[in-house]
Amino acid sequence: MAVVAACTTHEDGRSHPTDDDALVMPQADAKAGTLGTTGGSASTSGIETIADIRKIPEYQNCDEAAAAVNNGFYGPELNAELGDVVVTAGRFVLYRHPSNPAQNLYGYFVADPGGGPDSGVVLSLDATQTTIFDVGTHLAVSGKSTSYFCNTQLRATAINQLDDQTEAVEPVAVSSQILADPALGEAYEGALVRLNRGTVTAAPNKFGEFQIDGVLFVGDLYAYQAPTKGDVVNITGVMNYSFGKRMLEPRSDADIEILGSR
């Protein structure tokens, strides 16, 4: 069985995971799945990598206020055919429908095999996709790029697992100041990163988020034991964008190394 963090859905359609609720999903045996296509039109494009998605100007310069008046969406919806992406963080509940679980959306973080800046994105799947992909799994994905409340995403319409690919994605070392910066941090949204020797400057808030070096929030999308205020830590995780701020998301206790305290 795989446990996926549940979430509370807000009026704007976004969701925030909670610690006191969890969704248990059965492990499926199938290695490939086809998803129903989403509504709306999509432009023909040459998107073949996540880097191609990350560099779309409207996504890089997203206007959250403008997105809010368009049901959260901003910029073009473009067809994408990605021949090889790697799962860097496991499945989570991206959107929980208030009454119909069949309309839930699930998410993964995936990256181009080389990793680094402009390599990562949230992969969105609907509830018909029951296969659970492990971290390190290589996938071929057809879908459409989109920006939802300025979180760049790839909505999958078809997925196939690539059993002959094994290359792992290595985290890229980035400072807390760059990761938290509204402009400089854009390149690392969705990417697998490593923060070295950060200091916990604020204990977890009511959403379970603590702060590093007074600038970077660390979220609780996945389950782990949070360090305490004053701890000096190395943290590996994926960079998320939610509720107007950039957040580092550790994937498990193994992603947090406590070096000492101040």
Commentary on this structure:
This protein is mainly beta. It has two domains: 29-161, Beta Barrel (OB fold (Dihydrolipoamide Acetyltransferase, E2P)); 172-261, Beta Barrel (OB fold (Dihydrolipoamide Acetyltransferase, E2P)). The chain has four helices and 16 strands. The protein has helices spanning 50-54, 57-60, 64-68, 176-180, and strands at residues 2-9, 15-25, 32-34, 43-47, 78-95, 105-111, 120-126, 138-148, 151-161, 172-173, 192-202, 210-212, 216-218, 231-242, 245-249, 256-261. The strands form three sheets. Strands 5-6-7-9-8 form a five-stranded mixed beta barrel. A five-stranded mixed barrel has the order 11-12-13-15-14. It has a two-stranded antiparallel ribbon with strand order 1-2. A hairpin with a 2-residue loop joins β8 and β9. The longest helix has 5 residues, at 50-54.
User: What is the architecture of the largest domain at the second tier of CATH?
Assistant: Beta Barrel
Major pleated sheet: 5 strands, mixed, barrel
β-strand number = 16
Compute the separation of the termini in Å: 39 Å
What is the residue-averaged pLDDT?
Answer: 84
Strand content: over 45%
